[in-house]
Each structure stands twice: as C-alpha cells, then as structure tokens.
C-alpha cells in the first residue's frame, strides 16, 4: 500500500489560516505519498476546504509552509499550483458548461503554437487536444453521450467524471478531490471511486475529502481528521476502527 | 457554442456504450436543434414573406441597398457579440463611432492620406474601448453597464465639442468614400468590409487561444481564474476589439456619407445588442457565434427596409424589432430548460 520508506511528495507544516476573526486552520501538518489515498475528514466547518485551497493556491497561508518533494514551494495562485503538479477537483467542479469535454480539459493550458507568440495569440491545435482528451476518456472508461457536445448537456456524474479525468491529464504529483461524490447517486459515485483508484494506481498522491465512511474504508490508505481547525488524529481506516474514526470527527469519546 | 469549434469532428472517436435512445431524449434533442437554427429559419421566412409582399424587395438594387445599410450594424454587432460572450455589454459603441467619424474628419483637415485618416478613426475607437475595459476591470466595477454608459455620454460630448458646433463635417479621402459608398459588380464595397471583419474575427475566435478564453470567461469566470486564464486582460481586450469594430463602422459610415458627424450612431448600441440577441446568442454570456450577430443584423436591416418599401409607419419597425427580441430571449430560456432536461435524462441512463 503506502510506500513505507519513501519521502512525502507533499508535506504541509504547521499551516495557519485566519479569515478575520475565524481561525480556520491552527497549525495543521500532514504528509501525502505517491500511490496513496489520504482521506481528509472532519465535520462541516472543520477547515478541510480551507486547507485544500491553501495547497491549491486559492488562499495564501498566514503561517506554516508547503513542501513539494521536500522543497519549500510558494503557491501564490491556482496557476502556480497547477504548474507545480498539483491538480484540484473543486467542490463546484470548475467546469465550463458551454465547452466540450476536450475544450474543458485543456482550458487555460491549450495545446497551441507557435511558441514565440504570446500565449493568447497562439493557434489552437484542436485535433491534438481532441485526440488526447479522447484517449484519456477511453483509458479511464468514462462513458459520455457525445464527445463534441457542451458539458451542459451531461449529468452530474458525467460532469464529475470529466472534472476528475481533467485532473488526471495534468496531475504529476498530487490530486485533491473535495467531496467528489457528494451530489451523486450510487452508480455515478461508483464510477468516480473507480477513477480515484486509478489515479492512485498511476502513482499520484490523492487527497480525498468525503463524508462517506464506506468510501474511506474502501479507498483510503490513511485518514487525517480535522476538528475546529486542528488535526485531531491520524490512522489507517478499516472496518474495525470505523467507529473510532467517526467519534474522532464529531469529538465524542469512544 | 452550438457547434463545437474547429471543424475536426471527424477525428473524434465515438465513445462506447451508447444505449438505445429513449423517445424523449430525441424529442428534446430535436427541440434543441430547432432552437439552434431558429433565427436563421425566421430570417429565411422573413425574406420569403417580404419578397412575396413587395416585388421590389428581391431586386438586385434593393438587396445591394440592404447590404449597404446593414454593413455598419453588422460590423459593430460583431464587437458587441464578443463583449456579450464575456457576460458584458458595450453601451458606448454608437457614441464611439460618432467620435471616430469626427476624429477622421479632423484628421482629413491635417492630412490627405486615406491610410492616416483611417488609422485615426481606428485609434479613436480603440482608445474609447480601452477606457471601457481598463476602468471596468481595474476600477473593480461590478458590471460594465455603468462605465460604458459613462463613455457613451463622454464620447458624444467630446465629439460635439471638437466638431465645434458643426453637425456635419464634410469631406473624406476618395479611398474612404469608395470603401463606404462605392461598389464592385453591383455589390457594395462595404459588404466586402463586413466580410473582411468577419474573416478576421473568425480566425481570432475560432483558431486562436484568445477565442477559447473568451468562451471560458463567459462560461464561468471563477473557473477561468482557477484554470489560470488571465481573465482581466481577456476582458480588457474584448472592449478594445469592440471599440476597433466601432472604428471600422465609422470608416464605412463616414465613407458612405463623405462626412463625419457627432450625431452619427444614435441608438446603434441598441441595434447591435438587439442584433446579437435576436440572432440567437445568449445574453447570459458564453453562448453564441459570429453567425448570430450577422443573422440578427441582417434581420434588423430587412425589417427596416421592408417596412419602408411597404410604407409602414417607422414606429412599427421599433415594435417589430422589440417583439422579436422578446421571442429571442424566451428561446434562450427554453434552451436552458431543455438542456436541464437532457442532463436529467443522462443521469437516468443505464451505465
Ligand atoms: N472565504 C472565507 N471567508 C471567511 N471565512 C471562511 C472562508 N472560508 C472558510 N471560512 C470559515 O472557515 C472555517 C472552515 O471552513 P471550511 O474549510 O470550508 O470547512 P469544511 O470544508 O471542513 O466544511 C469555517 O468556519 C468557515 O466559515
Ligand atoms: Mg468543504
């Protein structure tokens, strides 16, 4: 399962974040390893999304640091985080309803040339983008009704699958998924869980936020629990300690 | 974007697992397809009906007339369309055009060079557009409505001021007069100007990364930021392009009339917005293509022309255009409703 002696691809040290009077993160540390799913658990308002946004460049940290492959990395913007190899599937998906799956995949990172032109003035290589996107979709066994239709015409599960698949195209180190199955039915959730397993198999460090303990036990190699902005526990989830995990989350005694 | 970009559909593999289509799915799909071609159908219907009612309508000379009269609206509507794609609006285009014609007329007093006079008009248009874009984005305004309303007023005022009491400033270089008023084999030269603007716009929107970014910004601005698109500069550029289109419109109008005037372009902002919407682009941004702006511009041109031929009161033109706008906006609502339906049907499909 998790590579025992390997060094973490992502390490967060003493992360601290305030929103005015709200102290959302109070010195949280965690590590993520390649080929491992790390579940990030906690009640609503525990600080999970905030922590994830600090890693993916949406928020800056007030204290602490983020290390990628052991090196301190400044992530001032989502674009910088993506360049550093961190992909995020946001809770709201960040998909463009008016674009096709392939156009969504490459939005902001278009395959285009010639290189001496400024990025915005380059000419799109639509053929290459369609080909690559279709290959990824096929490799991940995502079934879409039409590949050339705008995402607006697709179901919640299909959209989620597209967002996850987009992350897999560019992920080089870390993939973060914020409640990827929250809005899905059973069958569509299954599909997304399979995609997560595949991301892991491909050697990414996966950070998964979810409220579904079944999913945690099934997929996660480790679980980190946050409560009121603090890390309150870390363990290997299994059927046997599922109850312990839940009481850690809600803060009750076992 | 009704049809996906690039004309490369042949290379896209059809994806597996396409179960039998439910009858409802195809009904909804048919509805969506009808909505997509609706404006074009209405245009053809309009041509047929007016052609039957007024024998003069389809005569080459009248068609040539319509093309010439529609040219300015079409050119400026293309810029307006790009702005609306990004969820914006440009109320200043009419005043911008007027100011550009005055600047052109003033330039002609200083130089005989047609190229320099044209450049002056384009630069004037671009400058007003740049003010719109920069103040909107870096002044952190919530919506471009107010700033373009302000520049509407400012540009018109500046035009009146620098025209020093003249309502028309006569005189344009012969080349510009030819561009706006001449014709080739009976086809007005302004029609070729429209074609050139369309070609350049198509390349920028369809083939260049910039065009993809416009759709992304209009589709979901927050996601565009998250995906690393320089949203602010995309927005500024769109208003500059809209201003340049107003400048091109100024060249055509000043050429046709061989004059500049601070009174030109009155209500052009409404005509161009109407053209974009009745052509079938979405007012909510992110949806539509240049064809929509053109179809809408031609529709407005034909309604004006036909009602003139039929000797119908000018007020009725305004009523007719207003009714078509309502129809177009409702079609947009219906389209969103049908798309939501498609999503539900998708979720219910067998895996
Ligand atoms: N942008 C923000 N501005 C102010 N407060 C915020 C912001 N984002 C999150 N918070 C607050 O920080 C705390 C943690 O929120 P969040 O990270 O979203 O929790 P979770 O994702 O675990 O449910 C909450 O009290 C929330 O209200
Ligand atoms: Mg959250």
Concise summary:
With 254 residues, chain A is α/β, with parallel strands linked by helices.
Describe this entry's structure for a reader.
The complex is a heterodimer of chains A (254) and B (351). By secondary structure, chain A is of the alpha/beta class. Chain A has a single domain (6-97, 157-250), classed as P-loop containing nucleotide triphosphate hydrolases (Rossmann fold, 3-Layer(aba) Sandwich). Helices cover 32% and strands 26% of the residues of chain A. Chain A has eight helices and twelve strands. In chain A, the strands form three sheets. Chain A has a six-stranded mixed β-sheet, with helices on both faces. In chain A, a hairpin with a 2-residue loop joins strand 4 (63-68) and strand 5. In chain A, helix 5 (156-170) runs parallel beside helix 6. The longest helix of chain A has 16 residues, at 186-201. The model of chain A has no long low-confidence stretch (mean pLDDT 88). Chain B is an all-alpha fold and 351 residues long. Chain B has one domain (34-50, 71-349): Orthogonal Bundle (ABC transporter involved in vitamin B12 uptake, BtuC). Chain B contains 13 helices and four strands. Chain B has helices spanning 23-53, 60-85, 93-110, 114-138, 144-162, 174-181, 189-207, 209-219, 221-226, 231-257, 268-279, 290-309, 314-347, and strands at 169-170, 183-184, 187-188, 259-260. Chain B has a two-stranded antiparallel sheet with strand order 1-4. In chain B, a hairpin with a 2-residue loop joins strand 2 and strand 3. The longest helix of chain B has 34 residues, at 314-347. The interface between A and B is large, with 55 and 47 residues. The structure holds adenosine-5'-diphosphate and magnesium ion (MG). Adenosine-5'-diphosphate is lined by residues 19, 22, 24, 42, 44-50 of chain A. Adenosine-5'-diphosphate (ADP) is lined by residues 19, 22, 24, 42, 44-50 of chain A.
């Amino acid at each position: 399962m998790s590579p025992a002696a390997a060094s973490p691809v992502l390490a967060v040290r003493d992360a601290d974040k305030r929103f005015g009077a709200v102290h959302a993160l109070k010195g949280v540390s965690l590590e993520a390893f390649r080929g491992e799913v790390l579940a990030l658990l906690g009640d609503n308002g525990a600080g999970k999304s905030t922590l994830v946004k600090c890693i993916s460049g949406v928020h800056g940290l007030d204290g602490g640091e983020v290390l990628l492959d052991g090196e301190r990395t400044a992530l001032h913007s989502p674009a910088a985080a993506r360049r550093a190899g961190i992909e995020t599937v946001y809770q709201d998906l960040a998909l463009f309803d008016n674009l096709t799956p392939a156009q969504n995949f490459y939005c902001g990172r278009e395959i285009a040339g010639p290189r001496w032109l400024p990025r915005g003035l380059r000419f799109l290589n639509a053929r290459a983008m369609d080909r690559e996107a279709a290959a990824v979709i096929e490799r991940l066994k995502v079934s879409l009704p039409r590949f050339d239709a705008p995402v607006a015409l697709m179901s919640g599960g299909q959209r989620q699958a597209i967002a996850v698949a987009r992350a897999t195209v560019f992920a080089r180190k870390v993939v973060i998924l914020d409640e990827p199955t929250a809005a899905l039915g059973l069958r569509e959730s299954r599909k997304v869980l399979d995609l997560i397993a595949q991301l892991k198999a491909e050697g990414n460090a996966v950070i998964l936020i979810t409220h579904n303990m079944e999913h945690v036990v099934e997929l996660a190699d480790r679980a980190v629990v946050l409560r009121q902005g603090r890390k309150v526990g870390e363990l290997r989830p299994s059927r046997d300690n599922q109850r312990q995990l839940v009481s850690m989350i809600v803060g009750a005694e076992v | 974007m009704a049809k996906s970009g690039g004309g490369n559909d042949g290379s896209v593999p059809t994806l597996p697992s396409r179960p039998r289509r439910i009858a409802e799915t195809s009904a909804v799909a048919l509805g969506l397809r009808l909505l997509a071609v609706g404006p074009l159908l209405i245009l053809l219907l309009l041509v047929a009906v007016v052609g039957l009612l007024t024998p003069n309508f389809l005569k080459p000379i009248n068609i040539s007339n319509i093309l010439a009269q529609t040219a300015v609206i079409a050119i400026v509507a293309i810029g307006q369309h790009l702005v609306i794609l990004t969820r914006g609006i440009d109320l200043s285009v009419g005043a911008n055009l007027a100011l550009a014609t005055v600047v052109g007329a003033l330039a002609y007093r200083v130089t005989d060079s047609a190229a320099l006079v044209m450049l002056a008009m384009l630069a004037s248009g671009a400058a007003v557009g740049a003010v719109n874009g920069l103040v909107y984005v870096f002044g952190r305004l919530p919506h471009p409505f107010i700033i373009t309303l302000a520049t509407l007023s400012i540009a018109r005022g500046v035009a009146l001021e620098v025209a020093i009491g003249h309502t028309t400033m006569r005189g344009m270089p012969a080349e510009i007069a030819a561009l706006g008023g001449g014709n080739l084999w009976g086809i007005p030269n302004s029609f070729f100007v429209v074609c050139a603007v369309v070609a350049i716009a198509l390349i920028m929107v369809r083939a260049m990364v910039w065009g993809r970014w416009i759709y992304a910004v209009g589709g979901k601005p927050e996601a565009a930021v998250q995906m690393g698109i320089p949203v602010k500069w995309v927005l500024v550029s769109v208003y500059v392009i809209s201003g340049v289109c107003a400048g091109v419109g100024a060249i055509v109008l000043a050429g046709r009339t061989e004059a500049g005037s601070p009174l030109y372009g009155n209500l052009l902002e409404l005509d161009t917005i109407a053209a974009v919407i009745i052509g079938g682009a979405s007012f909510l941004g992110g949806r539509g293509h240049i064809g929509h702006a053109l179809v809408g511009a031609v529709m407005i041109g034909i309604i004006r022309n036909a009602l003139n031929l039929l000797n119908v009161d000018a007020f009725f033109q305004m009523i007719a255009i207003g009714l078509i706008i309502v129809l177009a906006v409702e079609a947009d609502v219906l389209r969103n409703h049908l798309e939501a339906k498609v999503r539900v049907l998708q979720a219910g499909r067998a895996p």
